[in-house]
Design brief:
The chain is of the alpha+beta class and 117 residues long. It has four helices and three strands, in the order αβββααα. Helix content is 41%, strand content 21%. Helix 2 packs across helix 3 and helix 2 crosses helix 4. The N and C termini lie far apart (35 Å).
């Protein structure tokens, strides 16, 4: 179960929504077993993530990871986003082992969005 610090991030829903514009790219990922889904809009500037918005459905961990990432990966190069996200999740109490699919799913959605740049 998502711990209290991650729950607070989830409830704040930081970064929820959509980005618009010609320079925005979207990626999505879905968990094939549970049906959780994450969609990410990203804007890169000079090879770094300048803005990120998300839409997620499914378990609380899926939404908590997306909300955490909306802050943790800003300013990162896409190739460094996983390390930054992991560090922030640990700082917030981390995910249970059965919730880690949410992190992997978010990173797949982000990679899909950044591939098109």
């Amino acid at each position: 179960m998502v711990g209290p610090k991650l729950r607070a991030v989830l409830l704040a829903s930081v970064g929820a929504g959509a980005l618009t514009g010609d320079d925005v790219r979207t990626g999505s990922a879905e968990h094939p077993v549970c049906g959780d889904r994450t969609e990410v809009d990203v804007r890169l500037v000079d090879g770094r993530i300048a803005e990120l918005r998300w839409r997620a459905s499914g378990c609380p961990a899926t939404q908590a990871v997306a909300a955490t990432a909306a802050q943790a990966v800003i300013g990162c190069r896409p190739c460094d986003a996983a390390v930054s996200l992991r560090a922030q999740l640990v700082a917030l109490g981390d995910l249970a082992s059965y919730e880690r699919h949410a992190e992997a799913m978010f990173l797949r959605a982000l990679a899909a969005a950044c591939r098109s740049y």
